[in-house]
Amino acid sequence: MAGIERIRSVAARVRREFGGGNEVLVVVSAMAGETDRLVQYCREAAPLHDPTEYDVVVASGEQVTAGLLAMTLQSMGLKARSFMGWQLVRASGIHGNARVEAIENATLDEALSGGTIAVIPGFQGVSEDGRVATLGRGGSDTSAVAIAAGVKADRCDIYTDVDGVYTTDPRIVPKARKLNQVTFEEMLELAGVGAKVLQVRSVGLAMRAKMPLRVLSAFEDVPGTDIVAELSGAEMERNQIAGIAADRGEARITVIGVPDQPGTVAAIIGPLAKSGIPVDMIVHAATPDTGSSDLTFTVPRAVLAQALAAIEALKDAVAYDRLVSDDKVAKVSIVGVGIRSNPELAATMFDVLAERQINLLAVSSSEIKVSALIAEDQLDLAVRVLHSAFGLDQEQAA
Amino acid sequence: MAGIERIRSVAARVRREFGGGNEVLVVVSAMAGETDRLVQYCREAAPLHDPTEYDVVVASGEQVTAGLLAMTLQSMGLKARSFMGWQLVRASGIHGNARVEAIENATLDEALSGGTIAVIPGFQGVSEDGRVATLGRGGSDTSAVAIAAGVKADRCDIYTDVDGVYTTDPRIVPKARKLNQVTFEEMLELAGVGAKVLQVRSVGLAMRAKMPLRVLSAFEDVPGTDIVAELSGAEMERNQIAGIAADRGEARITVIGVPDQPGTVAAIIGPLAKSGIPVDMIVHAATPDTGSSDLTFTVPRAVLAQALAAIEALKDAVAYDRLVSDDKVAKVSIVGVGIRSNPELAATMFDVLAERQINLLAVSSSEIKVSALIAEDQLDLAVRVLHSAFGLDQEQAA
Lengths: 398, 398
Description:
Chain A is of the alpha/beta class. Chain A has helices at residues 4-19, 34-45, 51-58, 60-75, 85-88, 106-113, 140-150, 184-192, 200-209, 264-274, 304-312, 315-318, 344-355, 379-389, 394-397; strands spanning 25-28, 80-82, 89-92, 99-103, 117-121, 124-126, 132-134, 156-160, 181-183, 213-217, 225-228, 243-259, 280-287, 292-300, 322-335, 362-366, 369-375. Chain A has a six-stranded antiparallel beta sheet with strand order 13-14-12-15-17-16. Chain A has a four-stranded mixed beta sheet with strand order 8-10-11-9. In chain A, helix 1 (4-19) crosses helix 4 (60-75), helix 7 (140-150) packs parallel to helix 9 and helix 8 runs antiparallel to helix 9 (200-209). The two termini of chain A are 34 Å apart.
């Protein structure tokens, strides 16, 4: 949220939802720049600050917005009141990165059923020791979902910087189309591979809580995207591929000449995972009758140096030949619930890429996703041809 | 409090108090400009805002300082934690202007006796309905005193913009001297007539709670002034007059030809008081055998027009002749516990003013104060000659 103008515009949206006969509960974020300002204060006060005190300082940003939105709604003639996180959101876990445990909602239920719009600061609750606890940066989405689940809402609308979930990144494919519906699983795969719309944690929580989400623009009044457990109505007939995800921040590591015996893959991947380095797209192929094999995998490019150093340290223990890496790679994925039942979709993907002379450096697949690692300078081309081949371009949809 | 630098300087002062073997509890205000910024947000969001939502927004300023001071103290190697107003300050009364009712201090006592410095946001508590309640603008002083009383502190130190209580305004009399001690009653009279050091309400509360106060500079490390129930030690021998108060913001109203019968004074003063206009220095003198009298009093200059309009409205009911007013008047007062036992002090005051040809427009007195209304352009002269005559000038004290 930016300044008071933004709060007024949110209030107008809330009024319309309420006017539609709904009980409305609003979870708000801090105004633009506020959280950064508060985090900066903490850094200046004490570089190694106590997370419980950090929570006290940083949680104030959303509290301010909650009070301001409640009074703005009142000035429009609506009944509204703010609730603080400590009044109803029980959280547990680590300060600065807590989880919502339960919503104490007697007063809240009473307010809602009495026609009062409830406004709640996102991103915070009260910890087991009775203190303010924040849910981690960007936690507003997650607390909105948790609160929606806690009060058994029919739906949780999330107003964001984007106006919905697209078939792919519109900066790469201008013909990208906004999806009406996407399943939780598809959304998780799309988010996980680069479509930065919602926090992955909030989508996972909504999926477990079976809480339908709607992603809407906080700026423009246009239809958004529903994120649901099962596609419904016309959407069931939609294209089997929901979208094409592109992820540039990848690096490939190949460990050459790994002894072909049980446990060597674990001996390499295990220490990386323990150091907090996420490893993806693992391909392990033995060369028959040589007793030796190569192990290829990807890591986020930002931690490549760290990952290489960790594997160098294993050279004696694992006895591999040598190590090569490539940080000019990218990952392109097709995502869709249709993949589960139709193995030909993966084959189509490989055909389309081959036609354009795009070489596959590695491949991985899950029930609803197939990913290919390719040269980074071919990523935009790959996304465009796949988007078109799977019938996702706007003209074809219309 | 200004930025992080100010918080560091406060932390250094707190460390010294703690190092002196004291249990220390700190009540903090918002950083410089913060409260104004938050109040401005409320005005922009809704000109007629709900005081409960106003409280939510404005209370956040002190919460931020509390967290930041706690983490700064920790970074100095001290044990410290913040408590929020809602965790221990029970308040009652009107939102935006609540009163401290009690301090729930089990956890607080435990922290203090365990050597932890407690940091508490001033100006706020939790209301009977479980919501954030602020104690009114400038309420940090008052909440500090209430919290000090609630935890039975030995003393409450208040760090302010000034470094103590002076015998008079040093801008008028450069020889004004800082008092080592002043009684609560003297402080109330000095504060009430213009020495803007502490909120009147905080001094009244300290007097009732028998909580000794110390006023100190928040900027300079110099001795301050103790505010106590009874003067002690060498101070008992000090001058009988503690100080000279000067108040410029006065206006005089004279209602001429008021019928000399019971109830007419009340008929005029009553409606003013009901409109929230404070009336001071009431002088009612009947002209013998005429059946008529004049009524003179003062009001703050800022509400003179409002007061005159209110009295105009009473013309038919009260049947007075006419109304005159003068907004070029000021009030000079001598304040001291010595006045109680020494009526000659008032006579000395009148002599000194008469010698300088300063005309007395009205006079009022209480047990520890004598005030004279004079022409505004004679105020500085009056303060200087009284300050000198009562032996308050710095040289004479040394």
